[in-house]
Amino acid sequence: MGSRTRDLPPLTGIAGVLRELRYQEVARQGIGLLLMPVYALLSQPLPGLFLAGAVLAVAGALVRLYASGYITKNQELATVGPYSLVRHPLYTGNLLLVAGFTLASGLWWAAVLSVLFWWFYYPAAIEYEDRKLRRIFGQPCEDWQRATPAVIPAGLVPKRGGSWSFRTSMSRNAEPLVLAYSAFWLGWIYWQL
C-alpha cells in the first residue's frame, strides 16, 4: 500500500492495483507532462481551435502561477486568493492547460484521452489532498472544504487577504519550468498551422 492510500480500507486484486495507480502523484504528473508533446507532435491544428486552446492553456499557466504564490505547504491553510474560489487551484490550472492543449492540437482523440486522464487521476488526487489537509488543520479545514468547490469555481472574485509572493510562486511546483515547457509545446503547435 502506498503512503497516499495507507489510511484507506484495503483493496485486493485489480481494484487494489488500480487504486494504487490512481494515487501515484509521479505517474499523474508525468503523464500530464507527456500529453503536451504527444498532442503537439501529432497536432493537426485549426486556427480557431488553436486560438481558443492557446487562450485556455495560457489561462491555466497563469492560474497555476497565481495559486502557487499563496502556498505555504502544510504550514498554514490557504483560504484566500484563488483558494477562496476553489480548494485546488493548481488542479484548476492543470485542467485548463490540458483542455487548452487538447483544443489547440485539433485532435479529436485528444479530447477522449484528456477526459480519461483527468477522470482516472484527479478525483484520487483531490481526495488525498483534502484528507491530508483535514488531518493537519482539523475543523477550520473541514469548514473551508464544505464551503469551497474542489476545482470549478462558483464565482470569479477571490476573497482578499493573505499575501501573494512572486518569489514563492516561482519557486513552488517548478512553475518557471511548467511555463517554459508549456510555451515551447504550444509554440510547436502554432508552427504547424
Mind summarizing the main beta sheet?
A: none
Shape: globular
Domain module tally: 1
Series of secondary-structure elements, N-terminal to C-terminal: HHHHHHHH
Helical amount among residues, as a percent range? Answer: 55-70%
The whole-angstrom Rg is: 17 Å
Number of helices: 8
- The chain-level structural class is mainly alpha
Round the mean pLDDT to the nearest integer and report it: 91
- Reported by name, the CATH topology is Four Helix Bundle (Hemerythrin (Met), subunit A)
How large a portion of the residues is in β-strands, by DSSP E?
under 5%
Q: pLDDT under 50 segments (min length 5)? A: none
Q: Give the termini separation.
A: 46 Å
CATH architecture annotation name: Up-down Bundle
List keywords for this structure.
single chain; 193 residues; mainly alpha; Four Helix Bundle (Hemerythrin (Met), subunit A); 8 helices; 0% strand; globular
Give a quick summary of the entry:
With 193 residues, the chain is mainly alpha-helical. The chain contains 8 helices and no strands.
Describe this structure in words.
- This protein has helices spanning 13-22, 25-41, 47-68, 89-105, 108-137, 139-147, 166-171, 175-191.
- With 193 residues, the chain is mainly alpha-helical.
- The radius of gyration is 17 Å and the shape is globular.
- It has a single domain (33-191), classed as Four Helix Bundle (Hemerythrin (Met), subunit A) (Up-down Bundle).
- The mean pLDDT is 91.
- Helix 2 packs parallel to helix 4 (89-105) and helix 2 packs antiparallel against helix 5.
- The chain is built from eight helices and no strands.
